[in-house]
Specification:
The chain is an alpha+beta fold and 96 residues long. The protein has one domain: Double Stranded RNA Binding Domain (2-Layer Sandwich), CATH 3.30.160.250. The protein has one helix at 37-58, and strands spanning 2-3, 7-17, 20-25, 30-34, 80-89. Strand 3 (20-25) and strand 4 form a beta hairpin.
Length: 96
């Protein structure tokens, strides 16, 4: 995971499940889905943004990687369509 001032970079994975595509952020264990791989990626970026916002507002840790035994980088599966960098723009603002 990389962190610039207003952009986070995680690792995303796309899986084919029936007629749908499921997307998963591997560092956060946040998932989404879509009718196409492209839509699943977009929906995952939205889900990660909302997840980060909730974590920062509630002051809870945001990193919670998928278990090693489920990580497609370590245990490849025929259902994996793509593993890609997931860039999410997000600004952290301090509240006083």
């Amino acid at each position: 995971m990389k962190n610039n001032q207003d952009q986070f970079e995680f690792t995303g994975a796309i899986f084919k499940e029936g007629k749908r595509f499921v997307s998963l952020c591997l560092e956060l264990d946040v998932a989404s889905q879509g009718r196409t791989a492209r839509e699943a990626k977009r929906m995952l970026a939205d889900a990660v943004s909302l997840y980060l916002e909730t974590c920062f507002e509630s002051n809870i840790p945001y990193l919670r990687p998928v278990p090693r035994e489920e990580d497609p980088r370590l245990h490849p599966s025929k259902d994996v369509v793509d593993i890609f960098p997931l860039r999410v723009e997000f600004q952290v603002k301090a509240a006083v």
